[in-house]
Design brief:
mainly alpha, 11 helices, 76% helix
Length: 257
């Protein structure tokens, strides 16, 4: 009876970790794609520059921005799709028959997702420091980046869970999450179009997304330069509020079997 009151158990964490690592989307889009894109963009940009300092700046900026792809792919797309498939098969209801509450399963899955993101980020930045001489962060820059990735991952988790609960279908959830994934990439300036080159009517939308600030401005925070963080904080608050509303609306839906 004591284990049933715990929100996180080693057995459930191990089970959910196997579910996360068994999802091919997280390996392709959450680990492989960020590394490949960062390497390609850094290599192309480095060929157009001659100074070592300039190459380090470009490489560090690219890696910091591409790092935000990891929670987007692992959670916003990978978790949403896998959980929607579980809902369509009635797996949460089956777990409840064995005494495993949804809160326990959710907390275990959230911990597994965050652990996988941590491992993916370590692989991602290890490749950057091995292949390119990236700028070393000041401790405040590293702490700020870690906090931003953690908060962004939690926001993506709320958004993904809400989308999956509303769609409750692999195809619909995959479509919505994929649209959001590439929309965030485009508006965040990770598809070769910078914020300044976006159409005027699109720029206000891009300013509402944290990925735009992470991709464009986080190099200043990473290296300890002076930076006004308020617009970035406001974008986190806005996206967090939208995700919370979607999650609340999804949880208020009558349960379907």
């Amino acid at each position: 009876m004591q284990n049933k009151r715990k929100l996180l158990t080693p057995q459930m964490l191990a089970f959910e970790m196997r579910c996360v690592t068994g999802n091919p989307y997280v390996h392709i889009f959450g680990v492989g794609l960020p590394v490949v894109l960062a390497l390609l963009i850094t290599k192309v940009a480095g060929q157009e520059m001659t100074g070592t300092a300039g190459i380090k700046i470009i490489g560090t900026t690219v890696y910091l921005g591409m790092g935000s792809l990891i929670p987007m792919a692992v959670i916003l797309m990978g978790y949403a799709v896998s959980y929607a498939e579980e809902l369509s098969k009635g797996i949460p209801q089956r777990l409840q028959l064995f005494g495993i509450k949804r809160s326990v399963a959710f907390c275990s899955r959230a911990a597994a997702e965050l652990l996988f993101i941590l491992l993916a980020c370590l692989i991602f930045f290890a490749s950057g420091y091995l292949l390119y001489d990236l700028e070393k962060p000041v401790w405040t820059g590293l702490a700020s980046y870690t906090a931003c990735m953690a908060v962004f991952s939690i926001i993506c988790l709320a958004l993904a869970h809400g989308i999956a609960c509303i769609c409750r279908n692999f195809g619909r959830t995959y479509c919505v999450s994929m649209i959001l994934y590439f929309a965030f990439m485009i508006l965040g300036g990770m598809m070769g179009i910078s914020y300044e080159n976006l159409p005027g009517w699109v720029q206000p939308v891009a300013k509402l997304l944290p990925v735009m600030y992470i991709n464009r401005d986080f190099y200043k925070i990473w290296t300890g330069k002076e930076y006004n963080c308020m617009p970035m904080i406001q974008s986190f608050l806005f996206l967090g509020a939208v995700s919370a509303i979607i999650l609340f609306a999804a949880l208020k839906q009558p349960e379907r079997t």
